[in-house]
Amino acid sequence: MNRVFTRPLPLVDISRDQYARFREALAPDPRLPVEFGRWARESARTEMIHQAAGWNTVRIAVDFEEFQAFAEAAKLPLTYGLLHAYAYQKWLHQARPSRGPLP
User: Which residues of 51-68 are buried (b: 16+ CB within 10 A; e: fewer)?
Assistant: First the structure.
């Protein structure tokens, strides 16, 4: 299928090694199941759905310490929604490096 949307849709990519840290620190959210494997399958499924709908997707690896520092600087609680917002900001800075470092 031809891609309808040209701007990539950033998607969170959490490593298996750091998954438990995210689970412990983030506010409870049904999008962050107990098992990493389940999260990885659901994340891959979400990516496939977006691609089937014409979105270009890009996986953004998120490091727990960097995300935590971002949340602390912004004085915001650690939530799954903020994790996605952080991934988007990280993608913006990767795509346009002249914007400077994330806070």
Answer: eeeebebbebebebeebe
Domain ranges across the chain: 9-97
- For residues 47 and 31, give the distance between their C-alpha atoms in angstroms, rounded to a whole number: 14
What are the beta bridge partners of residue 74?
Answer: none
What distance in Å separates the CA atoms of residue 39 and residue 19, rounded to the nearest whole number? Answer: 9
Radius of gyration of the chain, Cα coordinates, nearest whole angstrom:
14
Residue 12 CA to residue 80 CA, distance in Å, equals 10
pLDDT digits (tens, 9 = 90+) for 21-75: 999 999 999 999 999 999 999 999 999 999 999 888 999 999 999 999 999 999 9
32 DSSP 8-state letter? S
pTM for this model (two decimals): 0.81
Picking from 58, 47, 61, the residue whose alpha carbon sits closest to that of residue 6 is 58
